[in-house]
Sequence to fold (399 residues):
Amino acid sequence: MPLFKRDRREEVRPAVVQLRQTDRHPFRLMDGYIPLHQPEFSLYRSIREAIPVVDAAILKLVRLTGGVEVSCQDKRAERELNQFLRTVPAGWNQQGIQAFLDGYLDCLLTCGRAVGEIVPSRDGREIAAVLCGNVSDIEVKEEGNPLDILLALRRPDGTTQVLPRQDLLLFTPYSPSPENPYGVSLLHSMPFLSGILLKIYQTLGANWERAGNLRFAVVYKPGEEGLDSRRLQERSELLAQRWSQAMESTRSGAVRDFVATGDVEIKVIGAEAAIPDCQAPVRLIIEQIIAQTGIPPFLLGLNWSSTERMSSQQADIMTSELTALRRTLTPVVEKICRLWLRMHGYDTPFAVEWEEINLQDQVEEARAELFRQQAAKLERGEESPHPLPAATPSPQGEG
Fold:
């Protein structure tokens, strides 16, 4: 005989808890990002892929940088050199130094550094191609002197091999500093805000998926007359069947009403919870992201202001940004041109010339030039034949 009798009552089982699915956006590198000294190139590329406005801003900077030409004292060398710059192969079925600089600058802004290679012909008398390299496969090493750096190839097993022809390699850091001498990406301050923005977008899509695909709750109350459990179950099954038929007819395009007797209540599940407005937080985050790129918002399709014209101050700031990018790329172009001139036996000085950046209003520039000329005549004591025209206010409220 057992000492302790078991309780013959049925064990109470806990109710099944319905867990919410933890949907996350596909760019999970931003959620687990921890700032370290080693740059995360895959993270920066994910930011461009996840946020279209960032990708559009970088492409705008690349396009607005403009084209480049070279002027030499020897006009024959100038013609041949410019012909070479227009026709040099740049890889991936592209041609011209501008195609190379577009990919080089794109990598420079995204990863904070860019590498390239000058490929000579087999006989060593011509430059066969100018190619961009993958920065993820390159490691920068110092040889005891910050002025002397070596580019090494990172192998899959973790070892590195110093590349043999360093004079044919191109390397450019973006915004170097004492802490980051090999460049900092334009996107280095965006992972935190980008993660928040993607959470908002992911939640917004989930909310619209629930709100757009309506779910109904049909509640039948028997009333005071009451029904036994069997008849109550039969009527509930009949209501469910008729409601399902009505919904199926709606999907096929037909209109079918649902008629029921008794106290029947139909509600939309989740209709009481309104979708929160995300316009204000999304704009706040995008403003911070665009401020890092230095591009006016209306150039990216964001019409936040009452005017869609660029003010003179914005044009000057944009011009200075593009000029800084050109200063970064000029040494690369000079190295390529210097090597080509040496291969062809030319010893002539040359200068890299970029296309003129013109973001100002031509009418306003002409009026300002007229004012300067008339003011100079007045200073010399000459009487101007035409009075100074009255300055018209610009659409931005400027004088």
